[in-house]
Specification:
Blueprint (H helix, E strand, L loop, with lengths): L3 H19 L4 H4 L2 H4 L10 E2 L3 E4 L4 E6 L2 E2 L5 H32 L4 H27 L25 H8 L4 H14 L5 E6 L5 H9 L2 E8 L2 H11 L4 E5 L12 E5 L9 E5 L12 E7 L9 H11 E11 L15 H10 L2 E13 L9 E12 L2 H6 L6 H4 L19 H8 L7 H12 L3 H20 L1
Parallel strand pairs: 5-6, 5-10, 6-9, 10-11
Antiparallel strand pairs: 1-2, 2-3, 3-4, 7-8, 11-13, 12-13
Helix pairs in contact: 4-5, 6-9, 7-8, 15-16
The structure holds S-adenosylmethionine (SAM).
């Protein structure tokens, strides 16, 4: 027992040494990952130097943070926002700890309650220090927001969004990840995954398991949230990370704050590249992947699956496979129109050029911490859908998409609309107005307002122009 500390330190030191020796070979260059990555601004190929990936075409540099390239269109803005997010957390934790201290000293008589409050106060402090240390390792120091923004309600993800997923992935018993990996293995069959892309990989345990078990040759995983990815990078490199879970309904006083060593006993994994990148504008080569995986992603994150499916199609090579795993549990803000059920998602996949080779629906446990009273089960659809070969598509022409036949329906931001060069300035004007919400009618109204052309004539022209691009894109 006494020797465990030094033994672990020695093991960690050996790992760090090995890591330092491997550093120049590691991640990007040891695999063909760099060939798969693209500039998020111009889609050009990238070059690597010591601290950044560079796009020779648009002369932009994308920093590498603790081994994770930041391929977001404006990396400086993203990094600043992450630093602001950390400062927000510091402020919230300081406030919370002050209140707990006041409660403990003033009004609480019961010894067990005092113990719980003290445990929570210490746990919050430890958790913050651990998070600060992870951020510091990536060169991310906290930075307070400018006074005008300070105290404004958080929009979008915070530093702690998906925090519990980190513990689920690397600290809790393996049951949930294991069940997901099994469901996916069953629909995948025995074919190796090959070059694999994960969209919205979170804390990346499923990335690791599928990479190792399903024969991925190189895996690229994209996400935009820093903490889960920074922790995942360390663990995938064979390190461990101390992190404290604070469950929202703890089972016992000891469970109020549970400090864990995440990733204990897991070996380093080669050829898994984590990238800060937007899944809806992915900084990767089109048509280059054997497999694209979306896990617990479509309902939670994609604004509209009907927009995501053609993008996944464009990322895959012919006959490549889209693996989807997840429930249909939408955030409140999602319009009812885009709250698809399992059968609609399957239909969307077919309409977008996929054959559903294998599907499975089963009920699985979700986010059941051993320290928490909460947890739930979800009905999960898992499918493996094959990108249909061009010839097969032509034999079975699909019906006109709804957004073309109904000119009041929103037009999805199809990959095909990104094609350049466009044949005429009118195409450019139309495509510039496609934002995922506007319909043909809305675009006609907008151009009519700008250029004083009758809306009816415009509607016909816009429809023809978009139909043309969509057809070209699927050809
Ligand atoms: C519900 S979690 C699922 C995480 C992961 N697939 C897993 O296996 O646990 C959704 C993830 O999508 C990420 N995400 C949200 N919007 C994204 C975007 N535009 N691009 C990339 N990742 C995104 C979130 O940060 C989060 O990690």
């Amino acid at each position: 027992m006494v020797a465990a500390g030094p033994a672990r330190r020695e093991r960690d030191a050996r790992r760090l040494l090995r890591r330092a020796e491997d550093e120049s070979e590691r991640d990007l260059t040891a695999t063909d990952a760099l060939e798969l990555l693209r500039c998020p601004t111009c889609e050009g190929s990238l070059e690597r130097d010591a601290a950044a990936l560079r796009c020779p075409r648009c002369a932009k540099a994308f920093p590498i943070l603790a081994g994770i390239p930041c391929l977001l269109p404006d990396p400086a803005a993203a990094i600043l926002e992450w630093r602001h997010g950390l400062a927000d957390l510091e402020r919230i934790v300081a406030h919370g700890r002050d209140r707990l201290l006041a409660d403990t000293t003033a009004s609480v008589r019961r010894a067990s309650t005092r113990r719980r409050l003290e445990h929570l106060r210490n746990g919050l402090g430890a958790q913050l220090e651990q998070i600060q240390s992870v951020f510091r390792g990536a060169g991310l120091e906290s930075r307070a927001r400018p006074p005008a923004e300070a105290g404004a309600p958080a929009v979008g993800d915070t530093t702690l969004s998906y925090f519990h997923q980190i513990h689920r992935d690397w600290g809790w018993p393996d049951a949930e990840i294991e069940a997901a990996a099994i469901a996916i293995a069953e629909v995948c069959g025995k074919d190796p995954l090959g070059k694999t892309l994960f969209l919205g990989a979170g804390a990346a345990r499923l990335v690791r398991e599928l990479h190792l078990r399903q024969g991925a040759s190189a895996t690229i995983a994209l996400d935009i949230n820093p903490l889960p990815f920074l922790v995942a990078r360390k663990i995938l490199d064979g390190e461990t990370v101390r992190l404290t879970e604070i469950p929202n309904s703890p089972r016992s006083i000891d469970d109020v704050a549970v400090e864990r060593t995440l990733g204990e006993g897991l070996e380093a994994v080669a050829n898994v590249t984590l990238v800060f990148g937007d899944a809806f504008s992915p900084p990767v080569a089109r048509g280059a992947f054997d497999t694209v995986v979306t896990a617990w992603f479509v309902d939670q994150v994609a604004p509209d699956a009907a927009e995501l499916a053609p993008l996944v199609h464009a990322l895959l090579r012919e006959n490549g496979t889209w693996i989807n795993h997840g429930p249909f549990v939408y955030p409140a803000a999602r319009p009812v129109r885009a709250r698809y059920t399992a059968d609609e998602l399957s239909e969307i996949a077919r309409d977008s050029g996929f054959d559903l080779d294998s599907t499975d629906i089963r009920r699985l446990t979700f986010m059941e911490s051993p320290a928490c009273n909460q947890g739930r089960t979800e009905r999960i659809l898992t499918f493996a859908a094959r990108k249909v070969a061009l010839a097969a598509r032509e034999e079975t022409p699909s019906a006109e998409p709804a957004w073309l036949s109904d000119t009041s329906a929103p037009i999805p931001r199809l990959e095909a609309f990104r094609a350049r060069p466009l044949p005429h300035p009118f195409f450019t004007a139309v495509v510039a107005l496609v934002d995922g919400a506007r319909s043909i009618d809305a675009i006609a109204a907008e151009i009519s307002r700008q250029q004083r052309i009758p809306e009816d004539a415009l509607r016909v022209a816009i429809r023809a122009c978009l139909a043309d691009l969509a057809r070209e894109g699927s050809a």
